[in-house]
Automatic annotation (TrEMBL):
InterPro entries: GHMP_kinase_C_dom, GHMP_kinase_C_sf, GHMP_kinase_N_dom, GHMP_knse_ATP-bd_CS, Mev_gal_kin, Ribosomal_Su5_D2-typ_SF, Ribsml_uS5_D2-typ_fold_subgr
GO CC annotation, single: cytoplasm
Domain GHMP kinase N-terminal: 125-211
Protein name, UniProt field: Mevalonate kinase
Pathway linked to the protein: Isoprenoid biosynthesis; isopentenyl diphosphate biosynthesis via mevalonate pathway; isopentenyl diphosphate from (R)-mevalonate: step 1/3
Any Pfam family matching the protein: GHMP_kinases_N
Source taxon at top rank: Eukaryota
Compartment annotation: Cytoplasm
The protein's Enzyme Commission number: 2.7.1.36
Length: 387
């Protein structure tokens, strides 16, 4: 029995970090996906291991089922029909199982992803043999929600082969879960994100699960309907960073300066709400689009200034800001910052030759540019064309 699931990455248009502290944020799915194929062996396969194959890196991790049973003696009561958080005891058992895999030092960041895999797998399927194969179009650890896309696609594949969801196995191509199954994927994926991020707001797994453009505050999402053509250039500075550490650093700054940081978060909340209002309001003509784009650019600049206040910008991000400003274009970091990706709004009337020049300038600094479709699909699964 085999299933393939995919889940998109995301951009945060406004409100990252502040959303962890209760402010509103705006995010949109992008058309770059993480794919997880899950295969449960038949008895005739005679395979008694759980395997995780990270195909892009050609890394395979495997655990004999007997080793899993030894590590999780209480599993009978642990296997959960509804999502639960990973206990301290299980966290320790998972850490030992991950350590035994001798992840190369240069790839040690993967340890949290492997831990999330183990937690989601054993919680949903128990100590059974299987092989999960993962590939991704998203750069890992760059602000485009690779961790959430990984957790969502993995959870979707796990649930698709469990008794928790009802699916049309004869359906060809990608199919979507029903609303209650999507909610279940989202809640489990959030538990996976907690293992990778520490204290996620839930915005990344939510937009990866449901897709579209969303406004998000304190766990609640509102779907944003818009007919505004919104084009963003995404520049990957290729400076590696870790969302968990950045989120923790903002929390520490908040403890040191609670009043000032509360004011910063409140300003971000207003920016995200104003952005949502602009994006949702109807468009009458080209002039209206230009006016809206100018307002959005100003809000992006203001949000970037506040992210600098939070201490999550980086020299590479500042270089992108300066480079795009030479072309009178506005940018802000997206995701956790500290390197990673930067968004630049490309106004509808901007000529293609200017876009080409901006990209050439950015790429001459060693950055990588892409233009992704935004506000598209959420997670989907397929029982055909699996590999
Ligand atoms: N395809 C994948 N395979 C295995 N692990 C992954 C995969 N994608 C993400 N991860 C895990 O998630 C970690 C990156 O998550 P992190 O939250 O730091 O960055 P991000 O999600 O790309 O950016 P942001 O959270 O700012 O949007 C990786 O180091 C790895 O542990
Ligand atoms: C930095 C952050 O706000 C967004 C990361 O994409 C973290 C979170 O909301 O979980
Ligand atoms: Mg992440």
């Amino acid at each position: 029995m085999e299933v393939r699931a995919r889940a998109p990455g995301k951009i945060i248009l406004a409100g990252e970090h502040a959303v962890v502290h209760g402010s509103t944020a705006m995010a949109a799915a992008i058309d770059l996906y993480t794919y997880v194929s899950l295969r449960l062996p038949t008895p005739s396969d005679n395979d008694d291991t759980l395997k995780l194959y990270l195909k892009d890196m050609d890394l395979e991790f495997s655990w004999p089922v007997a080793r899993l049973e030894e590590a999780f003696p209480e599993l009978g009561s642990l296997r959960a029909s509804s999502p639960i958080s990973c206990s301290l005891e299980i966290t320790k058992a998972i850490a030992a199982l991950v350590e035994e895999q001798d992840i190369p030092e240069a790839k040690i960041g993967l340890a949290s992803g492997v831990s999330a895999f183990l937690w989601l797998y054993i919680s949903i399927h128990g100590c059974k043999p299987a092989k999960a194969t993962v590939t991704s179009e998203l750069p890992l650890g760059s602000g485009l929600g690779s961790s959430a896309a990984f957790c969502v696609a993995l959870t979707a594949a796990l649930l698709a082969l469990s008794d928790s969801v009802k699916l049309d196995f004869g359906h060809q191509g990608w199919q979507v879960f029903g609303d209650s199954e999507l909610d279940l994927v989202n809640t489990w994926a959030f538990e996976g994100e907690k293992i990778i991020h520490g204290k996620p707001s839930g915005i990344d797994n939510t937009v990866s699960t449901y897709g579209n453009m969303i406004k998000f505050k304190s766990g609640e999402l509102t779907c944003i309907k818009t007919n505004m053509p919104l084009k963003m250039l995404i520049t990957n500075t290729k400076v590696g960073r870790n969302t968990k550490a950045l989120v923790a650093s903002v929390s520490e700054r908040t403890m040191r300066h609670p009043t000032a940081m509360t004011a910063v978060f409140s300003a971000v909340d207003s920016i995200s709400n104003e952005m949502a209002t602009i994006i949702q309001s109807p468009i009458s003509d080209d002039l209206a689009i230009t006016e809206k784009e100018e307002k959005l650019e100003e809000l992006m600049e203001m949000n970037q200034g506040l992210l600098q206040c939070m201490g999550v910008s980086h020299a590479s991000i500042e270089t992108v800001l300066r480079t795009t400003l030479k072309f009178k274009l506005s940018s802000k970091l997206t995701g956790a910052g500290g390197g990673g990706c930067v968004l630049t709004l490309l106004p509808t009337l901007l000529s293609g030759s200017v876009v080409d020049k901006v990209i050439a300038d950015l790429e001459s600094c060693g950055f990588q540019c892409l233009i992704a479709g935004i506000g598209g699909k959420g997670m989907e699964i397929s029982f055909s064309g699996t590999s």
